TrEMBL record:
Residues 87-370 form the Protein kinase domain. It comes from Rosa chinensis. This is non-specific serine/threonine protein kinase. Residues 1-64, 378-423 are annotated as: Disordered. Residues 24-41 have a biased composition (Low complexity).
Length: 423
C-alpha cells in the first residue's frame, strides 16, 4: 500500500500553536470537562480558510496521502444551525459518546458552486460528553490531514465559545453497526458480497494508517466507526483516539487504556502497551461480527457469552461448527469455503500474542484473494420442518428466526447494548 507522506516542517507532532487555529489554548469551560486523558501529542496546522477548499489527494494519489497541513473549512455555528434545521430531532443520524450526529444541507455560496447543495453530517459535542475537547482536537489534527478512499472525509469544524462541532461528508448507508445489528424494516441485512467488500475497504483504510511513514495507530476499530457510502464503500471515521506509532527503537506506545470493550486487544487492556497489531485485534473482532451478526459485547446474552470472541473462538476453527454460528440473516447464502477462510483469518487477527497477528497489509491481500476466487454461492437446501439446524426454513413460510443460544431472539424488547467505552 503506497502512501505519500509529505515531509513537512509542520509535523503533526509539533505542538506549535498556529496563528489561526484555536487548538493551542483550551477555553477553561472546555478544559474542565476534559478527562485527564493522555496527551494525543498532536499539534495543529489548521489553516483558517473561510472558503471550502477542495482537498487534492484522492484523485492524484488513489492509495491515499497525508497532507502537509489540514485543509479544513471553519464553519460558523449559525450556518450549521441553519443546515440542520436548528439541530432538529428528525435530522439526528445517530449518537455516540461525543454527542449527536445530525444530517445537514449546505447551500453553497461560492460562485463556482452557487445553488449546489452539499449533504453533510454534523457531530455536535454534548456538554456532558466525557470525550470532549481532546478527541475533537485529535480528530481535527489526524483526520484533517489524512486522505484515503477508505477514510471518511472531514470537511471542517466549528468552535464558538462552548460549541465544538465536526463536519463530515455524509455517508449515505450509515454505519456497519446499523446494518449488522440494527432491527426494524428500514435496516436491510447485508448480503455476503457486500460484507466482503466492507471488510476489504475497512482493511485498506487501516493498512494505509499502519504503513504510513509515520505510523498511525487507530485505537478504536469497531463496527460503529465503519461508515458506508452509497455504494457500500467502507470508510473509517473517528480519529479521536488515534496515536502515532512507536519510534523505531520501541515496539509499543504506553498510554492510558482507552477504546471500546469487546474490541480492544488483551495486551493493551492489561498493560496499556499499545502496538500497531492492537488494531489488528479489533479488525479480527469486526470480522467475527460480520460472520456471525453478533455484537462484540452484549451483556444481554447469557453469562459466559457476553464477550463474542471468547465465546465463539472454538467455533471458528471448525468448518461444521462455523456453519452453526453464521449470521442467520444471510439465510445460508454465502460460499462456505470463503466464510471458513475468513474465519481462519479472523482467528489469526485475534491471536492473544500480538506478534502472531498478521499485518493489515497481509490481511488486505488475504481478503482480496478470497474475493477474487468468487466462489459460486449455493442456495441453501430446504430442510424438513423437523430440522434442528439453525437455518431451518419451513417451506412456503417466512423464515424462522434462529433462536439457538448463539443467536438469541431479537424480536422482543431486548435492548442490545452498545459496547461501552473505556476511559
Ligand atoms: N459522516 C456520517 N454520515 C452518516 N452517518 C454518520 C456519520 N458519522 C456518524 N454517523 C452516524 O452517527 C452514529 C454515531 O456516530 P458516533 O461516531 O458519534 O458514535 P459511535 O461510533 O456510535 O460511538 P463512539 O462515540 O464510541 O465512537 C454512527 O453510528 C452513524 O450511524
Ligand atoms: Mg464513532
Amino acid at each position: 500500500m503506497g502512501n505519500c507522506w509529505f515531509s513537512s516542517s509542520s509535523s503533526a507532532e509539533d505542538p506549535t500553536p498556529t496563528t489561526t487555529g484555536h487548538l493551542s489554548t483550551v477555553p477553561s469551560s472546555i478544559s474542565q470537562s476534559i478527562s485527564n486523558a493522555t496527551s494525543t501529542s498532536v499539534g495543529s496546522t489548521i489553516s483558517r480558510n473561510s472558503q471550502f477548499s477542495e482537498r487534492s489527494g484522492d484523485e492524484t494519489c488513489p492509495d491515499g496521502q497525508i497532507l502537509p497541513a489540514a485543509n479544513l473549512r471553519i464553519f460558523s455555528y449559525l450556518e450549521l444551525k441553519s443546515a440542520t434545521r436548528n439541530f432538529r430531532s428528525d435530522t439526528v443520524l445517530g449518537e455516540g459518546g461525543f454527542g449527536k450526529v445530525y444530517k445537514g444541507w449546505l447551500e453553497e455560496r461560492a460562485p463556482a458552486k452557487s445553488g449546489k447543495t452539499t449533504v453533510i453530517a454534523v457531530k455536535k459535542l454534548n456538554s456532558e460528553s466525557l470525550q470532549g475537547f481532546e478527541e475533537w482536537q485529535s480528530e481535527v489534527n489526524f483526520l484533517g490531514r489524512l486522505s484515503h478512499p477508505n477514510l471518511v472525509k472531514l470537511l471542517g469544524y466549528c468552535w464558538e465559545e462552548k460549541e465544538l462541532l465536526l463536519i463530515y461528508e455524509f455517508m449515505q448507508k450509515g454505519s456497519l453497526e446499523n446494518h449488522l445489528f440494527g432491527r426494524g424494516s428500514v435496516v436491510q441485512p447485508l448480503p455476503w458480497d457486500i460484507r466482503l467488500k466492507v471488510a476489504i475497504g475497512a482493511a485498506r483504510g487501516l493498512a494505509f494508517l499502519h504503513t504510513s511513514e509515520k505510523q498511525v495507530i487507530y485505537r478504536d476499530f469497531k463496527a460503529s466507526n465503519i461508515l458506508l457510502d452509497g455504494s457500500f464503500t467502507a470508510k473509517i471515521s473517528d480519529f479521536g483516539l488515534a496515536k502515532f506509532g512507536p519510534s523505531e527503537s520501541q515496539s509499543h506506545v504506553t498510554t492510558r487504556v482507552m477504546g471500546t470493550y469487546g474490541y480492544a486487544a488483551p495486551e493493551y487492556v492489561a498493560t496499556g502497551h499499545l502496538y500497531v497489531k492492537s488494531d489488528v485485534y479489533g479488525f479480527g473482532v469486526v470480522l467475527v461480527e460480520i460472520l456471525t451478526g453478533l455484537r462484540a459485547l452484549d451483556t444481554n446474552r447469557p453469562s459466559g457469552k457476553h464477550n463474542l470472541v471468547e465465546w465463539v473462538k472454538p467455533y471458528l476453527s471448525d468448518k461444521r461448527k462455523l456453519k452453526g454460528i453464521m449470521d442467520p440473516r444471510l439465510e445460508g447464502k454465502y460460499p462456505a469455503k470463503a466464510a471458513f477462510r475468513i474465519s481462519q483469518l479472523a482467528l489469526k487477527c485475534i491471536e492473544s500474542e500480538h506478534k502472531n497477528r498478521p499485518s493489515m497489509k497481509l490481511v488486505v491481500e488475504t481478503l482480496e484473494r478470497i474475493e477474487s476466487v468468487n466462489e459460486h454461492i449455493r442456495e441453501p437446501r430446504i430442510r424438513s420442518t423437523h430440522s434442528t439446524h439453525p437455518m431451518a426454513h419451513r417451506q412456503g413460510q417466512a423464515p424462522l428466526h434462529h433462536r439457538s443460544p448463539l443467536h438469541p431472539r431479537s424480536d422482543g424488547n431486548q435492548n442490545y447494548q452498545q459496547s461501552p467505552r473505556m476511559r
